[in-house]
Structures are given as structure tokens and as C-alpha cells.
Amino acid sequence: MTLIAVLAGDGIGPEVTAEARRILEAVRPGLDYQEAPVGGAGYLASGHPLPEATLDLAKRSDAVLFGAIGDPRFEKLERALRPEAALLSLRSELGLFANIRPATIFPALASESTLKPEVVDGLDIVIVRELTGDVYFGEKGQRTNAAGLREGHDLMRYDESEIRRIATVGFEMAKRRKGKLCSVDKANVLETSQVWRDVVTSMAADYPDVTLTHMYVDNAAMQMVRAPTQFDVIVTGNLFGDILSDQASMCAGSIGMLPSASLRAWSGDTGMYEPIHGSAPDIAGQGKANPCAAILSAAMLVRHSLDDEASAQRIEAAVAAALDTGARTADLGGNLSTREMGDVVMRALV
Ligand code: NAD
Ligand code: IPM
Ligand code: MN
């Protein structure tokens, strides 16, 4: 039996995950689903954002379909009890160091981006974001310093092996695509980035088919809106990848369009699949959220954890066909509800 853990989470998480699950059930009948609370929902259910039973379920599942976490009610809790802690723990406990965030423009959306159509037309980027290191997981704390002032710190660090394994994913991905890998760092200022750049550079000789370039993250942010189609594969650290992928989402039309896969192996292993967006408290409970990012995450789930490329393409084609009919949620200027958008994608499945 193939077990899918459904961790819908908070805010719009349950709304968009319901649509993703519906599509998954239609495309791959017979999978076993188990739901468990996570994030604010986990805290409410059992006093911890990642209840033990939820982590256990994730560990023994073949794949995790994740919604979103985050709830303003819990922002004042100590960090370990906040919803976000659950997501970070899941990533590190499952060893999901490689976060694949594709940003592609569906043809129907090219003229609807906030950027000019000629700027985003043909957009097809994959951001390979390291997911279990960097400032996210370095030593952190707060204290009162000698001047009596409150002070906070978060250590940025990567060692060579962490850089090598994520860069390998970037090189391999580029090899299978247009052969262009752009490594994004801040090596002009940060020692962490200098090690990053040195390691990535030292690997280039093993990939003669890949053209490696380096870009500072500030320039990359600018290039992402100036000429985003120059990029093929971007490999970068946890924090820079987080920021650049939200930015890339707007090149694709909306943050509601970008899926992700968090992996420890390319295929046939437990992975976690989630939209890149958050719980969107401003629209939660209103049925306004765009479910496409969640649905496209389900496509990545079947592609990577179930080794089923045909079903993945079937889901992606259905999203494209749904958008071709003019179906849009509010983020893309339309008036369909989350459920109605899911219905259109469902009907577009062939
Ligand atoms: P967010 O991504 O939740 O929302 C940013 C903006 O985008 C909001 O205006 C929201 O309405 C809109 N938006 C997001 N997803 C959408 C969708 N599918 N359809 C239409 N509009 C959408 O980011 P935020 O507001 O900075 O964070 C809210 C909460 O979510 C915080 O608690 C944050 O920590 C959490 N968060 C969680 C994840 C995750 O679970 N992976 C990711 C990002 C943020
Ligand atoms: C994401 C989110 C998370 C991150 C937060 C909620 C921990 O922004 O998945 O992009 O920063 O990785
Ligand atoms: Mn993010």
C-alpha cells in the first residue's frame, strides 16, 4: 500500500490541499491517505506544532502532501512552539535537503503577469534551494549586550559536504535541461558564500556539459525582474532561495502558482510536496486561494516519490488546460473560488 501523509496545516493550507488531494485521487486511485495536524493546528490539538504522531506518520509515509502553516495567533509563542518550527523540523527530521521550486509560465498567463509579457514569455526556471542548513539551522539566540541593548543573532554556516550535495542536484538538473547553472551567493561579503562558491566551482570540471555562472544575490534579485528568462537552473542557499522563489513566482503570474518538492533522493523516496506560499491569513477561510500551486505539488509528488512521470504530466496538462479556458482565482484577476478552480482542473483531466 502506498501511504500519503496529508498535513494540511493552517489558514488556506486545508483549502488548497483538499483540491490537490481530489486531483491525486482521480489520477492515482487506490492510494492510502492519512491526515494529521501540523503547525497551529498541531499546537491546538496537542500543545506542539509537530505532534509526535504527525512526525511518525510523515516518516513512515511514501510521500507527504503538505499545505501551509502559520497563524498570527501563535506569533508570540517561544520559537520552538510556533507553527513554522514544525515545518523546519519535518524538513530536517526527514533529511529533505533539496528543495526544487520550478517557476514556469503557463502560456495563458503570459499576458497577465505584473511584468510585461515579453519579459516573462517562455519563463522556465528551476530554483534548487538548500533546505536543511544556513541561517535557518545555525546557532541562534537573543541576549542583552554590554551596552544594555537587546541583541539577536543567527549563525550562517555551510560545510563543504552540504554544499556539494545540493550543488550536485543543481548540476544534474542543469545537465538534463538547457545546461545552464547559476549559483547565487554573496561571496563578496560572506565567508559562508566564499566556501559555497569555491566548492561549486571545484565541481564544474565534472560537468563539462553544464555552463556554470555565479551571481551575487542582490544582482540575481534584480535580474529576476529585468530578464528572468536568462535563467535555467539556479542553485542557492536556504535563505536566498526562499526569497528568490517568492520573487520568481510573480514572474509566473502569482504566488498561488508555484509548487515545490523537498527531497533527499531524486526519486522513489519519501519527499514532501507543498506550495511555496504560506497560510495567507488575509484570505483564509474565504475560499479565495488559488489551488494551482498545491495541485502542481501533487504532480511533483507522483513524479518524484511515485516515479510516475505520465501522471505528473497529466496533472500539469490539466492545470494548463484549465487556465486556457480563462478560469482564474482572484490572485490572477478572476472570480472563481478555490473549489471552483479545482473543479475546472478536474474536468480538464484527460
Ligand atoms: P503568504 O504566502 O501566506 O501570503 C503572502 C500574500 O500572498 C498574501 O497576500 C496572500 O493572500 C497571498 N497568497 C498566498 N498564497 C496564495 C494563494 N494560494 N492564492 C492566492 N493568494 C495567495 O505569506 P505571509 O503573509 O508572509 O505569511 C503568512 C503565514 O504563512 C506566516 O505565518 C508565515 O510564516 C507562513 N508561511 C508558511 C509557509 C509554508 O507553510 N511553507 C510559507 C510561507 C509563509
Ligand atoms: C517557505 C516558508 C518557510 C521557509 C517558513 C514558513 C519557515 O517561507 O516554505 O518558503 O522560510 O522556508
Ligand atoms: Mn518562503
From TrEMBL:
Pathway participation: Amino-acid biosynthesis; L-leucine biosynthesis; L-leucine from 3-methyl-2-oxobutanoate: step 3/4
GO molecular function: 3-isopropylmalate dehydrogenase activity
Cofactor comment text: Binds 1 Mg(2+) or Mn(2+) ion per subunit.
Site (Important for catalysis) location in chain: Y136, K186
Location(s) in or outside the cell: Cytoplasm
Record keywords: Amino-acid biosynthesis, Branched-chain amino acid biosynthesis, Cytoplasm, Leucine biosynthesis, Magnesium, Manganese, Metal-binding, NAD, Oxidoreductase
Lineage: superkingdom: Bacteria
Binding site for Mg(2+): D218, D242, D246
Cofactor: Mn(2+); Mg(2+)
E.C. designation(s): 1.1.1.85
Subunit (UniProt): Homodimer.
Family from the record: Belongs to the isocitrate and isopropylmalate dehydrogenases family. LeuB type 1 subfamily.
Purpose: Catalyzes the oxidation of 3-carboxy-2-hydroxy-4-methylpentanoate (3-isopropylmalate) to 3-carboxy-4-methyl-2-oxopentanoate. The product decarboxylates to 4-methyl-2 oxopentanoate.
Protein name stated in the entry: 3-isopropylmalate dehydrogenase
Species of origin: Sphingomonas rustica
Gene: leuB
